[in-house]
Amino acid sequence: MSSIWMDVPTLQVNENQLQNFVSFIYKNEQILKEFGAMKIQLNDSCKSSLKKRRNNLILVPRNEQIVKINNDENIYSLHEVDHIDESIQQSSLVIDEHDFWSSLSSSNNKQRLTNTSTLPNKSFFQKKIHPSHFNIHRLPEQSLLQLGGNKVTQQFVPCIKRAHGPGAISQMTTAKQHLFSIDYHHEGGARHWYIIPHYQRKSLQKIIDRYNSSFCLDHGQILIDPSVLDNNRIRYHRIIQRSNELVVISAGTLTQSFTENANWSESIEFALPSWIEDGHANASIPSCRCNAFQDSSRDAIDVTLFRHELIQKYITFNLSNITDDKSISLKGL
């Protein structure tokens, strides 16, 4: 018995569509709702406002290990450690997903380093850019988050992520307050994503509850072998992301991934009207089973700022029938 899965659709974007990239995503939102994500490739006319000289960032892998929770299922939990045990060897070569999951489940590899690190509020994109160039900085202000004014949009800054070698792991997570997010692959080895749409969340939580009812799906506590999803008929989708490709993640979607080799990527959150209209903004509160939401509740977005009439004005002026690819700020409405 197997689940229903297929690769996520890949779209091409041109230079004009980049000028209001949030509008392009909105017009293809049905793909996001069905698959939980989509991959976007920039065509030859597109330009990115990347820094000519990137900072020589030195990032150290987090002291985290992935440990199999029992011998019956290939489900793994995250454990922080005081120091890295040098006797724990990473896989020296990851050719494909079969190699990765096989090495993870092997009896002589009961512990595995995540081998990743993150650097919030850092970016490889320039802030001052030509409007026709892609830049990750401006996505929150182009999105529905602009209705919350600077107090809201300034909370959302790029985050650089470093995979330090083959088989680097990003355990299962979802964006803050179940927002949309976008990930840009700068350079390095391909990243293999597993995408679980939000409508599969309850079914997946029931499976996890068999082993530990305290595990939270939202905040990087677990990693699940896709064979477990197959055996339990959980719908999921795959993406292989390479350099200069974007992955857009829908609101409430769960993701996990691994890399074929060391790489650099960068991500940021944003919002579309469905974040409010479909109830994602409030759904994050009851779904969290760890302390992460309580710890971040001071920064939670006040959803009462997003009144229906303001959302409709935002759609009219920013997302509907845009011919000049310019958006209008509604902060003062």
UniProtKB/TrEMBL annotation:
- Signal peptide from the UniProt entry: none
Q: Name the residues that span the membrane.
A: none
User: Can you list the GO cellular component terms from the UniProt entry?
Assistant: chromatin; nucleus
On the tree of life, the source organism's domain of life is: Eukaryota
Gene3D superfamilies, sorted: Cupin
What is this protein's name? JmjC domain-containing protein
Q: Which Pfam families match?
A: JmjC
Q: Which GO terms describe its molecular function?
A: histone H3K36 demethylase activity; histone H3K9 demethylase activity
The record's Gene Ontology biological-process terms are: regulation of gene expression
**Where does the JmjC domain lie?**
128-287
